Amino acid sequence: MEALVCKKLGDPTALKSSISEADNDSPIILSKTQPIPQLTTPTSVRVRVKATSLNYANYLQILGKYQEKPPLPFIPGSDYSGIVDAVGPGVSLLKVGDRVCSFATLGSFAEFLVAEQDELFKVPDGCDLVAAGALPVAFGTSHVALVHRAQLTSGQVLLVLGAAGGVGLSAVQIGKVCGAVVIAVARGDEKVQFLKSLGVDHVVDSSKESVISSVKDFLKARKLKGVDVLYDPVGGKLTKESMKLLNWGAQILVIGFASGEVPLIPANIALVKNWTVHGLYWGSYRIHRPVVLEDSIRELLSWVAKGWITICISHTYSLSEASLAFAAIKDRKAIGKVMIAIDNERSVKSKL
């Protein structure tokens, strides 16, 4: 089968063209001879991958800057969607041909992947299968953060930084489902207009205006005291500025550091203002709180089926165009998710 293999650590965007097995300079190669994974237990399921999502964590992992550092070589990738290709003799929840989505620690940048049956989620009728491959990590992160951790309620004020990215857009939509007043921060006219089309209550273009002044003016006009929940996948200077907008008793959700700078949250101010700081490493829920994670994804899939949330796909690439896909994330060109769609029809057929 074909698979994207990380053979050494480095910047996967360095190669600005299609990749192959012969690329010696790139940290990633497109292998066409990877063995198709076999069923490992009676309850395991093999999925023919249809689409897999790129997350900033995948980019950091290839750079060698992520908190989890797998041994080389490895196949990157986390959330994905596809069709059940084979099932073990003990599988009772799924059958060959079922549409599913899930996430893995590694390995989704490939044509086939094996998982346990209870790790897979059926994709509802009416939900696009490629879009379903973008749901678990981005929307899962925001759902656990906002619904489970912050327990966001109707009427609260939610401030989302980096709102046009994959997790940012998911946080904006989940905030609206919860009935919150949503303020979004993004850069550039195209991103601002897109966020407005989603019904965001107030959008700040941080490339043109002061976040503090713009948000304060909005809060004053709406007779609101301040921000109740800060959703922060960005870090850096923007975090420091945003803390000036927080209410007494506010909650800070630390999602990531896309700016490359880890912010300092002053403990003395957190004490005086009774802030709660939530660190959220979504992937660790599979180990420590798997039921929370599973219930979260099931609820999100039901929201997709009801039309309450929309999975926004900005760019779609093939496996051979992975360098371009990572560049779209690195250069912040994406509005929503960047996907790799895998054309299984033209290549291999698996064998039991």
From TrEMBL:
A Pfam family: ADH_N
GO MF: oxidoreductase activity; zinc ion binding
CDD domains: QOR1 (cd08241)
InterPro entries for this protein: ADH-like_C, ADH-like_N, ER, GroES-like_sf, NAD(P)-bd_dom_sf, Quin_OxRdtase/zeta-crystal_CS, Zn-ADH-like_protein
Domain of life: Eukaryota
Domain Enoyl reductase (ER) residues, every copy: 22-340
Protein name, UniProt field: Enoyl reductase (ER) domain-containing protein
Organism: Salix brachista
